[in-house]
Each structure stands twice: as structure tokens, then as C-alpha cells.
Design goal:
single chain, alpha+beta, six-stranded antiparallel β-sheet, three-stranded antiparallel β-sheet, 4 helices, 11 strands, globular
Length: 205
């Protein structure tokens, strides 16, 4: 989905709306939600002192809240799953600050050369270890690739990494994208066709 200020993978929810759970704002706010084996402490609840991980992620991607506001929210409210799905998130801003949020477990703020997330818990890995699919070492392979990178990391390097860790088969990767803050441009490919890279540039209005 390409909008004036936002590029995202539209996820159709039961409310009939395509939600921006995976995407980037022209201001550099980027986020993604990943399915994870849930825990009872993160179960959906309604109330003023709770916020779903989906709402938090979407509001951040749409720049309705800033990184600092997200930090205040995770410190002051209970972050929970939506009623019909268990997910965790990674959010980052234009300054390279990153926040990993795992409902029912907690959050971790990072500021390093790179940050990664996967479909199991990074904050409390033992809680989801039994649910890792045998042979799924994409997180470890991505870590190794990034560890071996020099200080320069190009758009081409990013797509090489994404191609290496792509999924195939029934859960094949549908969209892979890279955002260049300096160019205000999203480079993306669909359905693992890495030989066909498209681009979308935010306007400078």
C-alpha cells in the first residue's frame, strides 16, 4: 500500500480494513509485527491501562505517536495481544533507536548498528524455544551476515540479506522492502522476485 506519507504491507483484518502492521513512514518510523507463540500474561484485555501491540505498532508507523511516546506507553501501560492473534513487534526511528516489544514479557530498547527480530522471543527465549520450527535458522543466518558487514551497508547488501533469509513454500515471503532514509525511498520486491526491484519515493511537500 503506497500512500502520501506511508508505505506498508496491508494486512486485512476481520474489521474489513487493511492495517499498516508492517511498514515505514516518510519520517523514518518503521515497524513490523510478527506472529509468536503467545503467553497468558500477554492475553488480550480491554481497559484504559492496556493497549494492543497491533494498535501501538500501527500508530507508530502512521506517525501518530513518536518513539519517545511509545517508550512512555510501554512503561505506563500493559501491552497485550489482539483478541485473535499473538504477535510481537520491533519499532525503530530515523535516529536508529530500536524497541523490541513482547506482550506479557516486556520490552528492550536498543541503539546499535543493527537490530533483528524473529518469530520467537528474544527477551525470554526459553519461553518459546519449544515452538521453533526445526531447521528455521533464519535469525542466526541474518545475524552472521550482519556481523560480517563493514560500516558500509548498501541497498544491494540489504536485498542480499533479505534474499538469503526469504521464506518459500506455503509461508513464502510476499513482500521484501528496504527504506533509504537519505533518499526518502522504499525499494521493494514481491513474491521473491528479487530480480525485479521496484521503488516508491515519498514526495518532498
Amino acid at each position: 500500500m503506497k500512500e502520501k506519507e506511508c508505505f506498508y504491507i496491508g494486512i486485512l483484518r476481520p474489521d474489513g480494513t487493511y492495517h499498516s502492521y508492517h511498514g515505514v513512514n516518510q519520517n523514518g518510523n518503521a515497524g513490523t509485527l510478527l506472529y509468536v507463540h503467545g503467553n497468558s500474561a500477554g492475553a488480550y484485555q480491554d481497559g484504559d491501562n492496556c493497549m494492543t501491540i497491533a494498535a501501538l505498532t500501527e500508530q507508530f508507523i502512521r506517525a501518530q505517536i513518536s518513539f519517545d511516546e511509545v517508550l512512555q506507553i510501554v512503561k505506563s501501560k500493559k501491552i497485550v495481544y489482539v483478541s485473535d492473534a499473538t504477535m510481537q513487534a520491533i519499532l525503530s526511528d530515523v535516529h536508529g533507536r530500536t524497541l523490541v516489544i513482547e506482550p506479557g514479557i516486556g520490552y528492550r530498547e536498543e541503539q546499535s548498528k543493527y537490530s533483528l527480530i524473529t518469530n520467537y522471543s528474544l527477551i525470554r527465549p526459553e519461553s518459546t524455544r519449544d515452538f521453533i520450527v526445526p531447521g528455521d535458522d533464519r535469525y542466526e543466518r541474518a545475524l552472521q551476515l550482519l556481523d560480517n558487514c563493514k560500516n558500509e551497508f548498501s541497498i544491494s547488501d540489504a536485498f542480499t540479506l533479505l534474499h538469503t533469509v526469504r521464506q518459500e513454500g506455503a509461508w513464502a515471503t510476499r513482500v521484501s522492502f528496504v527504506y533509504s532514509v537519505n533518499e526518502r525511498t522504499v525499494y521493494y520486491t514481491e513474491n521473491n522476485h528479487f530480480e525485479h526491484i521496484k521503488k516508491f519515493t515519498f514526495s518532498f511537500e
